[in-house]
Amino acid sequence: MKVHQVELVISAVRPEQYPEGDLPEFALAGRSNVGKSSFINKMIGRNSMARISSKPGKTQTLNFYKIEETLYYVDVPGYGYAKVSKKEREAWGKMIETYITSRDQLRAVILIVDLRHPPSNDDVMMYDFLKHYGIPCIIIATKADKIPKSKWQKHLKVTRESLNLAEGDELIMFSSETGLGKDKAWDAIKSFYK
């Protein structure tokens, strides 16, 4: 999909701040520093729409990006090793949980993992949480360009097995450097709202 129009509509923390209307929404989840911002920027063909931070844990709100007037990407705070207090982490957890479990417009969660490493315990917990609530999921395994091609299948297998990937959940290899997987990711997203 060629993206010509994209805007950050709102950074929300409470349901009453979510955008109105019924455009389909796709939440982006993943640990801090996994490359969510790079994924968003590659998908929409922009260099810096989503801010890439050297400090994990910078996203502290639900950021609603409206794309082509047809859908939203919703960037949620990363989980994992962000240097924030336990209290803050719990507040984010509640905010994310409220959004994911109660938002009718949410079509699927795009769970971003690092292909170079087995999914973390937090990745597995997030995936299990989505399965528990019956929320469709697209798994994007980023940083494929950092691994020799000959090892891709091995790494995909580890990701699949660690998450105990359910039948029908798509696992897409992705590189925000080379654009590998971009078309596949768009096809997966479109399959939820066409």
UniProtKB/TrEMBL annotation:
Requisite cofactors: Mg(2+)
Protein's recorded name: Probable GTP-binding protein EngB
Role description: Necessary for normal cell division and for the maintenance of normal septation.
GO biological process: division septum assembly
Entry keywords, A to Z: Cell cycle, Cell division, GTP-binding, Magnesium, Metal-binding, Nucleotide-binding, Septation
Gene (UniProt): engB
Claim: Glycoprotein is one of the keywords in the record: no
Source organism phylogeny: Bacteria, Bacillati, Bacillota, Bacilli, Bacillales
Domain EngB-type G: 22-194
Family membership noted in the UniProt record: Belongs to the TRAFAC class TrmE-Era-EngA-EngB-Septin-like GTPase superfamily. EngB GTPase family.
GO molecular function annotations of the record: GTP binding; metal ion binding
Species per Swiss-Prot/TrEMBL record: [Bacillus] enclensis
Keyword Metal-binding among record annotations: yes
InterPro entries: G_ENGB_dom (IPR030393), GTP-bd (IPR006073), GTP-bd_ribosome_bio_YsxC (IPR019987), P-loop_NTPase (IPR027417)
GO cellular component terms attached to this protein's record: cytosol
